[in-house]
Amino acid sequence: MTKYALQLNNVSKVYQDGENENTVLDNISLKVKPGEFVAIVGPSGSGKSTMLSIAGALLSNTKGEVIIGDTLLDNNKKNWNLVRREKIGFIFQSHQLIPYLNVGDQLNLIAKISKKKNKKEFEVYADELLEDLGLLDSKNKYPNKLSGGEKQRVAIARAFMNQPDVILADEPTASLDGARGRQVVEMIRKEVKKRNKAAIMVTHDERILDLVDIIYRIENGKIQVCK
């Protein structure tokens, strides 16, 4: 049986709107293997970000089950912090770097939170990531000295630092021009393949869809495979 890094099984999300119910996700299922890079597309308001939030243990689902690695998310949200810390890496629209930390310290902060490895192992891993992403010479720079593309590459390195099962990227190219945006997604793909991680990217940028393995489209709360 195939080992999946992420499974959404018959997941629905329903909001109560007065006397009415608003169904944002309607019985969707999605499975992503380690090393697989998936894109989610669809019109604004179709449920893409809601699905990503549920997959990232940020939002509860109304029905169905969410399995990350070998962990079934239950109703005890105290366990969700541990899941996010150890099993998920996030890349947001905005890099969300801490302005008073240099590049190296941005990654070291994740190391301290994760507690998965000893300090020396984390330092070696951090340097490896920075070298992969062309950032090793910028290790001592602060965010205000980095370009937009460089900041987003630091965010990629940070997402991989805790060696998660799943990488979740929410519009990672939204603030970048076409060339820089493509470079960033190429680097996400490279790290996903090299480190055998599952990745889901929500995007409106059709110019980068050739870089993913599978494209899903969400519309009216339903999901289907496009590629």
Tell me about the biggest sheet? 6 strands, mixed
Strand-and-helix sequence, N→C? Answer: EEEHEEHEHHHEHEEE
Strand order of the largest sheet: 6-7-8-3-9-10
Number of helices: 6
Q: Low-confidence parts lasting 5 or more residues at pLDDT below 50?
A: none
The strand count comes to 10
Shape: globular
Write down the CATH class. Alpha Beta
CATH H-level name... which superfamily? Answer: P-loop containing nucleotide triphosphate hydrolases
Overall pLDDT score:
88
Structural class, from helix and strand content?
Answer: alpha/beta
For this structure, the quaternary state is single chain
Cα(first) to Cα(last) distance is 23 Å
Rg over alpha carbons: 17 Å
Which strand-content bin applies to the residues? Answer: 25-35%
Write the layout of secondary structure elements.
Elements: E1 6-17, E2 20-32, E3 37-41, H1 48-55, E4 63-68, E5 71-72, H2 78-87, E6 88-91, H3 103-114, H4 119-132, H5 148-160, E7 166-170, H6 178-195, E8 198-202, E9 214-219, E10 222-225
Parallel strand pairs: 3-8, 3-9, 6-7, 7-8
Antiparallel strand pairs: 1-2, 1-4, 4-5, 9-10
